[in-house]
Specification:
The protein is α/β, with parallel strands linked by helices. Helix content is about 40%, strand content about 15%. Strands 3-4-2-5-1-6-7 form a seven-stranded mixed sheet, sandwiched between helices. The two termini are about 10 Å apart. About 50% of the residues are buried.
Length: about 250
């Protein structure tokens, strides 16, 4: 049975999509069958895997509306063992459209029931907000990865996100775990980066992944070529960081 992991943080620019795309590709390369769900209207995970967003006819929007099944929404990518359910700017409207629906927080969970067993891991790239889209992802997920950038405002907003996770656990999904906090955009030359790492590790101990994602030019370049870091430059620091994270997650779940 596939494990569903949401990658969430209401702060933008913390490396959510970078992590979603490259962790998914790394798990695929390590011979796990992976589905990535792009649940962000900006559709960066979709374009980051080389899919033309304008050509998307069935995606996360149709999945949440229950107008199409999950299987109909799945697209193959050019990365081994990795499929995607793409996003489109239409997804912006879903928060308004779901407001009056019964059990609106469970739309994604219900939609994934029939394909959950087809994959080892299903990753959900969440939008940078704590709205209905992210709530659907957390209700559907078995666990959540929280990326935190190694910068001054890193811990700002983390309390709010952890409170949201707690209330989802209480009301919608008692089985939701925190898979881990992931430190991203680390620059060993900066004292601030090192202070943030120390601070997060001191406060959250075992909740923090051992793998730290370092700042890497190749990681920033890869999406503009519509490729994961594994396809773009497998020998780069970014690729080795994400492969290390994938191995850590596989070990944790074996």
């Amino acid at each position: 049975m596939g494990k569903i992991i949401a990658i969430a943080n209401q702060k933008g620019g913390v490396g959510k999509t970078t992590t979603s795309v490259n962790l998914a590709a790394s798990l695929g390369v390590l011979e796990k069958k992976v589905l990535l769900i792009d649940a962000d209207p900006q559709a960066n995970a979709t374009s980051g895997l080389g899919i033309d967003v304008e050509s998307v006819e069935i995606g996360t929007y149709q999945l949440l509306e229950h107008t199409n099944s999950a299987r109909q929404a799945v697209l193959k990518t050019n990365t081994p063992n990795l499929d995607i359910i793409p996003s489109h700017i239409d997804l912006v409207a879903i928060e308004i459209e779901l407001v009056d629906k019964e059990e609106r927080e469970y739309m994604l969970k219900k939609a994934l029931q029939d394909i959950k067993d087809d994959y080892d891991f299903i990753l959900i790239d969440c939008a940078p907000s704590l709205g209905l889209l992210t709530l659907n992802a957390l209700t559907a997920a078995d666990a959540v990865i929280i990326p935190i950038q190694c910068e001054y405002f890193a811990l700002e907003g983390l309390g709010k996100l952890l409170n949201t996770v707690k209330s989802v656990q209480k009301i919608h999904n008692p089985d939701l775990d925190i898979e881990g906090l992931l430190l991203t955009m680390y620059d060993s030359r900066l004292r601030l980066s090192n202070q943030v790492v120390e601070e997060v590790q001191k406060h959250f101990n075992d909740m923090v992944f051992s793998t730290i994602i370092q700042r890497n030019v190749k990681l920033s370049e890869a999406p503009s070529y519509g490729e994961s870091i594994i396809n773009y430059d497998a020998s780069s620091k970014g690729a080795s960081n994400y492969l290390s994270l994938a191995k850590e997650i596989i070990t944790k779940n074996s």
